[in-house]
Design goal:
This protein has 446 residues and is α/β, with parallel strands linked by helices. It contains 14 helices and 15 strands. It folds into 2 domains: 226 residues, no CATH class; 210 residues, no CATH class. It starts with a strand and ends with a strand. The relative contact order is 0.11.
Length: 446
Amino acid sequence: MNIGFIPIDNRPVCYTLPEMIAAIDDNINFYLPPREFLGDLTKQADTEKIFDWMKTLPELDAFVISLDTIAYGGLIPSRRCPDTFDEIKEKILKFKELLLEKHSKIYAFSSIMRISNNNINEEEKEYWSQWGKKIFEYSYLSHKNENESSVKSEIPQEILDDYLKTRERNFDINKLYLKWQKEGFFDTLVFSKDDCAEFGFNVEEADFLESQGGFVKTGADEIPLTLLARAIQGEIKISPVFLEPEEKDLISNYEDISIEESVKGQIELAGCKISSEEEADILLYVNNFKKHQGEIVMKVSTEPFRRVWCPPQKPYMIADVRFANGADNFLVKQIFDHPADEMFCGFAAWNTSANTLGSLICAAKVKFLAKKYNKESFLKLQMTRFMDDWAYQANCRQKLEDADVKVLRKIIEPYKNRIQKFLNRKYNTIYKYPWNRLFEVEIECD
């Protein structure tokens, strides 16, 4: 099976993670543009080079595309890119022509521009450091039909005009994609929204797109992986098993739907079916939270998993969403009490609940349906996830003051040894900070 894949940017979870998942099945020929063509925290993707790369590809069975990469140069540049609507339209029309030459099914997503409720401009325009919270408040009150005039008057007019102009441009591009969808161009088109509040311009835009027949999904970084799963042909039945069944109606951080809705939505978008435990091909254990989701980095605690967990006698995977961006140490300890066997189909605990679920389900589906299963690639993926989601995010990151690889290498070693024992494999590991910040680490296992 030939699959083309254009990521959001060059982060490990966007670039190397899908590549590692595809490697679980040697029957998948996976085509990625060179990493240096993609955008990062400060630069846009080189779309002309991506177009040249596309011309070298064979005919594809499926093409999974982050449309923000083509239109704006990436997810973060979508909020910063100065290009006009007409300039972007010209670019994506050229892209459309190239896609038609590949005769493939097209699985694509485009983001609905987020509105962060903070004064942090690391991933926004410069003025967000001073006016981010005010713009969020103005957006919230406007959509809620409450008096926003006092907040609006506090924001410099030229800043508000620039922000609204950028929003309008991105919204018009999404309406153009929706038109293409109605013409039958996309096999699947998803409009993603992340960092959601109850009200806001982003919610308003999502409601409009849905009213016109568009499909809107809460999430972002995991959606290309969910679409990759959808592109893999074959039926698979998944049964969600919530470790806190009475709490599955609670809402995760950075999301606007219950954890139960999030789980079901990810399963269905991945092209899988929800079933009972008895009929399931794979059980999806969800380590959901009580009262509220914790967040280790933000020092927001929550009650950890306190009961006994034992692996079942049928294929299973574990979505650890007790905390946002980091595993639950209490659960992982119990997982490691039972060395991984052939029934184990994966673990994930990175960033948002949707991020964890989308990537986990994708890998499990590829493993279950693999025509040429590559066990070593699967175990390498699990080593990377446990090293990142548990060893680093839940433990080592809290002990670091800056992105220092030498310090990390020393403190992560005991965790590495424990994971290797669970997987019955030994790996050489290389650590990098691709965006020179603690938020994401890149761990290469060989």
